[in-house]
Amino acid sequence: MKLSESVKSISYLKANAANLIEDINKNQKTLIITQNGEAKVVVQDIKMYEKTQETMSMLKLLAMTSTKSNNATDIKSTFDSLRNELKSLQ
User: What is the Cα–Cα distance from 27 to 90, expressed in whole angstroms?
Assistant: First the structure.
């Protein structure tokens, strides 16, 4: 995606909202909206937004798991422990 093709003014957004939304959804685009020459907001296709959020969550998990801990256990042990704890709450 070229940034130069993704920048639109708020006036352009107001005048072409329906067409822009259709294009954004159809092509999974992201637009940067400017006001008084400054970038102010991002308009993004909902599917792309969800993918971005999922990616951020995965990166956060990866960052958390890369931190070494003296109490770290393998994934099976962790889930077994969680299942046991949930059973005890029922």
Answer: 47
Pairing mode, strands 30-35 and 38-44: antiparallel
Note down the domain range covering 15. 1-67
Does a structural domain hold residue 82?
no
DSSP code per residue over 27-55: HT-EEEEEETTEEEEEEE-HHHHHHHHHH
pTM: 0.61
Measured CA to CA, the distance from residue 3 to residue 29 in angstroms comes to 11
Residue tagged 């889930």 (tokens): 79
Give the pLDDT band of residue 76 (cuts 50, 70, 90). confident
Query: How many Cα neighbours within 13 Å face the side chain of 16?
Result: 13
What type of residue sits at position 80?
D
Q: Please, how many CA atoms are within 13 Å of residue 86, restricted to the half-sphere of its CB? A: 6
